[in-house]
Amino acid sequence: MQTVDKALSLLSYFSEQRPSVGLSELARLSGFNKATTRRFLVALEKHGIVEQDATTRSYRLGAGLLRLARVREATNPVAAIVQPVLNDLVSVTGETAHFSLYAGGSLATVGLSESAKSSRVMLGKGEAIPLHATASGLAYLAFARPAITDRVLSKALPAFTEHTVTGADKIRRQLSSVRKQGVAVARNTFEDGVCGIAAPVFDSDGFACGTVAIAAPAARAQRKVIASVQPEVMRAANEISLAMGAEPRSG
Amino acid sequence: MQTVDKALSLLSYFSEQRPSVGLSELARLSGFNKATTRRFLVALEKHGIVEQDATTRSYRLGAGLLRLARVREATNPVAAIVQPVLNDLVSVTGETAHFSLYAGGSLATVGLSESAKSSRVMLGKGEAIPLHATASGLAYLAFARPAITDRVLSKALPAFTEHTVTGADKIRRQLSSVRKQGVAVARNTFEDGVCGIAAPVFDSDGFACGTVAIAAPAARAQRKVIASVQPEVMRAANEISLAMGAEPRSG
DNA sequence: AATCATCGGTTCATTAAATGAACCGATAAG
DNA sequence: CTTATCGGTTCATTTAATGAACCGATGATT
């Protein structure tokens, strides 16, 4: 069913970095003939999957996707999968766990399970998480689409504590290490006394779309504790990735 | 581009009432040959648009839609359209305005603009709104997919105030009137002292997906005030409907 | 002002893909 | 045991898709 395949493959050229694209450019990107590309776009537009801007004539993802995503969410909510995974993670590690999605230049916590301990890290849903200064942020940037990482690191990076790394070069080295290890650890970089351990969450496009993390008081986060928590965070992130439509990981 | 058209038309058979569907049933519903339907589903699945349940072998909408919806939202947020519309509505009417989407058996407020008046109705984002006892609920049910309305009205309907209508037959007559007028008014039915005026919001499937409403202290909601507010609420609902992918209304 | 490049969009002879009746094994109901 | 229906597959036949060449419009360059 090659024709449907080709038409749907056009959707992968839309991203947060490329929210809209003209007909000729999309034909070039996809390698399809301009006439063929236009026919695909007309068919996608008919079903609300894309829409054409009346002024610029360029195409963007359409509002019909919102409805389909709402039906999907209503009947198969990500939360239904995420919440048990986060609860498990809290049971196993004893610390607060959260799941965040990238949107509009930062991560936003959309799933949360809190530790039962009286001394625990408090997080709020919807809070924006700075990317360069948190374990979640670093875990995301290490596996995000490179254009996003480049853009974040090209801006001025504020310090939140005296331990915050603000140099782009040094952060890039940290990201390289995170990629190798598959997990990010950040201690006292956003808030004194807090240690975060985070792994990236992927969806169907192969790049990170969010993270799973636990947050612990730094006093409890000794090296051997961190070593035992890391695989649990990675397991949880992988499980949520599958729910987000990622391909199963080998190994 | 008939083939792409047909493939995408399969997506309209998924709904909150029919979250999953088998191959043969989908072929019957769509009128396509079973072999053809399967080829379409395989192509849609490849791009994450649908996915097949490993146990039941039935198909449902896929996680890939969530990613596309997130890209769409990140770059063209509904809130960017909704918020100015709600702010306008507050300017014109002087009362708190809110936009709600239907999900999981109730409406949830997802957009809000509050009146500047010290005596005003307070609403919270994310609050579940009962369907039979509010203007928003009635505006939604009047234009929702009939299976939803039937299901809501087949359940026991609790009273919130002494003015709450709880009889299904009486509510159906109210809904009939709402359909004629295009707007619902509810006074003291959910909370004493509060009057709501609501209109349905549509998306691309032709049925209501949510509502726009204003909420005013009942003491300010005299008949002539209500008469002047109704067209403003309908105008706002229509504008948001277009952003949600509805076809433009004639007239 | 004229020229050039590229845009979105269209056409129709040519090429390729889609189609669906018939068939299969598996499973559940009677 | 029989029947009905499921998901899935095949290949001769039918139908749709394709893309080079073309169009008018627009913006940049000379």
Structure description:
- The structure is a homodimer of 251-residue chains.
- The first copy, chain A, is an alpha+beta fold.
- Chain A folds into two domains: 2-67, Arc Repressor Mutant, subunit A, CATH 1.10.10; 77-243, 2-Layer Sandwich (Beta-Lactamase).
- Chain A is 44% helix and 20% strand.
- The first copy, chain A, has nine helices and nine strands.
- Chain A has helices at residues 2-9, 23-30, 34-46, 64-75, 78-93, 135-143, 146-154, 168-181, 223-243, and strands at 20-21, 50-52, 59-61, 96-103, 106-113, 128-129, 184-187, 194-202, 208-217.
- In chain A, strands 6-5-4-9-8-7 form a six-stranded antiparallel sheet. In chain A, strands 1-3-2 form a three-stranded antiparallel sheet.
- In chain A, a hairpin with a 5-residue loop joins strand 8 (194-202) and strand 9 (208-217).
- In chain A, helix 2 (23-30) crosses helix 3 (34-46) and helix 6 crosses helix 8 (168-181).
- The two termini of chain A are 31 Å apart.
- The relative contact order of chain A is 0.11.
- At the A-B interface, helix 1, helix 3 and helix 4 of A face helix 1, helix 3 and helix 4 of B.
- The structure holds a DNA duplex (30 and 30 nucleotides).
